[in-house]
Structure formats: C-alpha cells, structure tokens
C-alpha cells in the first residue's frame, strides 16, 4: 500500500454514508474499505486527492480538495497506451470525475 501522503484534505463523514460502495469502486488506492454498515477510511495516507470518491458519493459524505480528477487513471492510461475510458471506473457521467 502506497503511503506517501502524510497530510491530505480528505474528510469523510461516516454518519452520512449509505454504504453504496461507489468510493471503494473508484478509488485507485483502496483508501476506503467495505464495512457492515458503512465504508471505513482504512488507508487515508494513501489518498492522492484525485477527487473521484467525493465526485461519486451520492450523499456528499466525502470532501477532498482536488484539481486533477482521475490522475491515476490518466497515468495508467498513458503508460498502457489506452483510452482514459478503459482505465477509470467512475462511469463518465456529467457529475463524475470524467464528465
Ligand atoms: S481522493 Fe482519490 S485517492 Fe483519495 S480517497 Fe478519494 S478516490 Fe481515493
Ligand atoms: S460513496 Fe459515499 S455513500 Fe457511498 S459508500 Fe462511499 S462514502 Fe458511503
């Protein structure tokens, strides 16, 4: 697990979480893990502030300051010579990181 970020702007409010699991699907660093009633902030130091989780959370339980969108997806796509759509799991709707 990459733990390069000792201080990030990531803020998670578990009281708002409805356990939809979207943040676990879009996070490139597995910062969130499934829990019985809500997700858990398992690896906060691995967050690279891409913003995908906050953009995809339907109840605004996550706040993070971001400016680069799915940076990890873009990097992986560039390294593999693939399109961004094939690397990001956010769905690409208007209100997601790839919208
Ligand atoms: S901002 Fe990006 S890296 Fe950080 S927890 Fe959210 S999806 Fe994961
Ligand atoms: S996307 Fe939001 S509501 Fe869904 S599991 Fe993550 S924190 Fe909870």
Q: Would you write up a description of this structure?
A:
This protein is an alpha+beta fold and 99 residues long. It has one domain: Alpha-Beta Plaits. 20% of the residues lie in helices and 8% in strands. The chain is built from three helices and four strands. Strands 1-4 form a two-stranded antiparallel sheet. The chain has a two-stranded antiparallel ribbon with strand order 2-3. A hairpin with a 6-residue loop joins strand 2 and strand 3. The chain is globular, with a radius of gyration of 13 Å. The chain starts with 10 loop residues before the first strand and ends in a 19-residue tail after the last helix. The mean pLDDT is 80. The site of one iron/sulfur cluster has 15 residues, from helix 1.
Task: List descriptors.
99 residues; alpha+beta; Alpha-Beta Plaits; two-stranded antiparallel sheet; globular; binds iron/sulfur cluster
Write the layout of secondary structure elements.
Layout: E1 11-12, H1 22-26, E2 32-33, E3 40-41, H2 52-56, E4 62-63, H3 71-80
Antiparallel strand pairs: 1-4, 2-3
Bound molecules: iron/sulfur cluster (SF4) (2 copies).
